[in-house]
Design goal:
By secondary structure, the chain is of the alpha/beta class. About 35% of the residues lie in helices and about 25% in strands.
Length: about 240
Amino acid sequence: MPRFYVAQPLAEGQALDLPPEVAHHVHVLRLGPGDRLTLFNGEGGEYTAVLDEVQKKRAACTVKLFDPREVELPYAVTLAQGLPEGSKMDWILEKAVELGAAGLQPLAARRSVVRLSAERAEKKLEHWQGVVVSASEQSGRNRLLQVAPPAAFGDWIAQQDLHKRVLLTPRAGESLAAWARHQPPQALTVMVGPEGGFSEEEEAAALRHGALPLAMGPRILRTETAGLAALAMLGAAWGGL
C-alpha cells in the first residue's frame, strides 16, 4: 500500500482532502476511487484510508482504521553531524531515517566547507525535512526524525545535553562496538566530524564538556559513512534493527 505523511490530526471515520503534494503523488501513481492508502502524521501509528475521489490536483479519502504499529528503536540516537559538502547531508539523512535515528543536529565545524547564511540555513532545513518525510514514507517509520537548525560547533558543545555524547575520533583508545557490547541501551548523541574530521581544538572542547571519545575501528571512514556505521553498530549491539 502506498504510504503518505499528512501533517494534521487523523481519526477513524474522518473524511479528508489530501494535501496537494500527496494528491499529486496519488495522481502520478494512477490510483483511483476504492484504492487503499496508508497515512501517518508523525504522532505514532498509522491509518488505512480509502480513496473516494481523484482528480488531477485534488484527492479525497475516508480514514478507515488505525494501526498502532511502531518500528522505532528502543533507544534514541541523535547524530550531531558536521556539515558536509554538496548533497551528502541528503544521503546521511535518508539513511539515518532508515536506520532509526531519532534526530540530527547539523554542526558548522571548523573544517566544514559549507557555510550557511541565516536565509540559506532556513531553506536547507526545509529541504532536509522534506528528505526525512520521503525516507519515512519509504521505510515504514511512523515518527519523523527531528532535524535541528544548524548550529555553530562552539555554541552547541557548550550547551548541556541530557544524553551522553559520543565523540567519534580515530585517536580514541576504545571502539564504539566494544563499548556498546558492555553498556545497556541508552539515549546517545553521536558526534561526527565533517570532511577532515573535527579539529584538535574542537575535540578538546568536546572532551572538556564530557564527551566520550570512541573510535570506529582501524580504518578511517568518510563523514557520510561514519554516523551510519555507528547506528548500525549500536543496532547490532542493542537491537532494534
